[in-house]
Specification:
By secondary structure, this protein is α/β, with parallel strands linked by helices. The protein is built from 4 helices and 7 strands; from the N terminus they run E-E-E-H-E-H-E-H-E-E-H. It has helices at 41-52, 75-86, 105-113, 152-160, and strands at 8-10, 16-18, 26-32, 57-63, 91-92, 129-132, 138-142. The strands form 2 sheets. Strands 5-4-3-6-7 form a 5-stranded mixed β-sheet. A two-stranded antiparallel sheet has the order 1-2. The chain starts with 7 loop residues before the first strand and ends with a helix.
């Protein structure tokens, strides 16, 4: 089975980011949206990032407009929104699809590795979160309603593993 390190993603400036650059880090991968009732989680994700980044946590935000068209802006508008309104300093990448035939390959892998409720392979809504261990393997999937503060135990456990 492959790992997240086998994938690349486009950054908001159109450059390519190799996820292998994060080898040895714990990743939290989140599909985000700017106009969702869960959007305030951006602030809570930033708090997690500031708390754990020096221990090896990286958060990767992937804007997605597939759920209620709640992220209609372009990549630059999304970047500015996240920084100005929520102080986001973790990486927000270029907008992607997380479901369907145009689903980003990383999301195809994440959904296969950690299915949702009742084995569902689809992402149900914005702010679905995937925790990835230092070896690039998906450890756990969290529902959109799971608040970032509820992830601390799982993140701390992943950070402690060699």
């Amino acid at each position: 089975m492959s790992s997240v390190y086998d994938f690349e993603a486009q950054m908001s400036d159109s450059k390519t980011k190799k996820l292998s650059d994060y080898r040895g880090k714990v990743l939290l991968v989140v599909n985000t949206a700017s106009r969702c009732r869960f959007t305030p989680q951006l602030s809570d994700l930033e708090k997690l990032y500031r708390q754990y980044q020096h221990q090896g946590l990286e958060i990767l935000g992937f804007p997605c407009n597939q759920f209620g068209h709640q992220d209609p802006g372009n990549d630059n508008e999304i970047q500015k929104f996240c920084q100005i309104n929520y102080g986001v300093s973790f990486l927000i990448l270029a907008k992607v699809d997380v479901n369907g035939s145009t689903s980003h390959p990383l999301y195809q892998h994440l959904k296969q590795a950690a299915p949702g409720l009742l084995g569902s392979k689809n992402i149900k809504w914005n702010f679905t979160k995937f925790l990835v261990g230092k070896e690039g393997k998906v450890l756990q999937r969290f529902a959109p309603a799971t608040r970032p503060a509820q992830l601390t135990t799982a993140i701390e456990s992943a950070l402690l593993k060699q």
